[in-house]
Specification:
CATH class of the largest domain: Alpha Beta
Order of helices and strands: HHEHEHEEEEEHEHEEHEEEH
Keywords: Magnesium, Metal-binding
CATH superfamily of the largest domain: Fructose-1,6-Bisphosphatase, subunit A, domain 1
CATH architecture of the largest domain: 2-Layer Sandwich
Protein name: Inositol monophosphatase
InterPro entries: CysQ/Inositol_MonoPase, Inositol_monophosphatase-like
Organism: Dietzia cinnamea
Strand content: 15-25%
Cofactor: Mg(2+)
Distance between the termini: 46 Å
Length: 273
């Protein structure tokens, strides 16, 4: 386990990456453990959460943590630093043998001098690939000593034409997805996790990711942080800004895309909202 960096903007970013990678290694090990398949998802998510929480408790004792496994409190709204954590994004993919589209999300929200704040450190680990996606690009790490054989191929097949590619949920795609794809002459890519769909945009495999079935702040904080740091577009489907560490913890939808198609997609989906 790498030493946890001290405070500081650069060190906070390293910490987010280390936390995501460490949880990813554990999840990779647990995926081939003797845990019963029906219990694996919940068990692995709880264990990954514990790794992140325990490390933050020691190294960042004054910071708050917010996620699915953490009780909410008004203290979060007054805090200067809040970590948003999704220890296992894409449980259905994780428990399905051979599926690589699952992720770990870690993001730090910090209050700025004006008292507003925003995401200042963020990382998305794709453990099946041994990669951590950040605003600077991607880093690789050794997933685990247990894994044998080649790593999985790309999340999606190579492009066959220059049509727009839009990633959508495998389980709950937008009700208007097919109609939108026809209108934009786009092809749809169905994937399991938000991190996986975001990765396809970050890696240039898709042009956009559209989500309409709601999400919590901890589900998308790292996504929005990494995407915006890369200079790409992330917003609500109507183009409005997603603001974190607010009283309202849920967002109805999400758009992640390259800047050149953002206006086109926002205009096209407006009539469906």
């Amino acid at each position: 386990m790498s030493p946890f960096p001290a405070h500081g903007r650069t060190n906070d970013q390293r910490s987010a990456e280390d936390l995501a990678a460490q949880a990813g290694r554990l999840l990779t090990d647990l995926r081939v453990s003797r845990v019963a398949p029906e219990d694996l998802g919940a068990f692995a998510e709880a264990e990954a959460q514990s790794v992140i929480i325990d490390r933050l408790a020691v190294a960042r004792p004054g910071d708050l943590v917010f996620g699915e496994w953490d009780p909410d409190s008004r203290a979060r709204l007054e805090a200067d630093r809040v970590w948003f954590v999704d220890p296992l994004d894409g449980v259905r993919s994780y428990v399905t043998e051979g599926r690589p589209d699952w992720a770990v999300h870690v993001a730090l929200w910090e209050k700025d001098p004006e008292g507003v704040g925003g995401i200042t450190a963020c990382a998305i680990a794709m453990p099946a690939y041994g990669r951590v996606l950040t605003g600077r690009g991607a880093t690789t790490y050794q997933p685990t000593s247990i894994i044998r054989g080649p790593r999985p191929g790309p999340l999606v097949p190579p492009r066959e034409d220059d049509r727009l590619r839009i990633a959508v949920s495998e389980a709950e795609p937008p009700a208007f997805a097919e109609e939108l794809a026809e209108e934009l002459d786009a092809s749809l890519v169905h994937l399991g996790s938000g991190g996986g769909k975001t990765a396809t945009v970050l890696e240039g495999e898709c042009d956009a990711y559209i989500h309409t079935s709601g999400h919590h702040q901890w589900d998308s904080a790292a996504t929005v942080g990494v995407v915006q740091q890369r200079g790409l577009h992330a917003s609500a489907l109507d183009g409005s800004e997603l603001v974190y560490n607010t009283e309202q913890i849920e967002f109805p939808d999400l758009l992640v895309c390259t800047q050149d198609v953002a206006e086109t997609i926002i205009d096209a989906v407006r009539r469906y909202l």
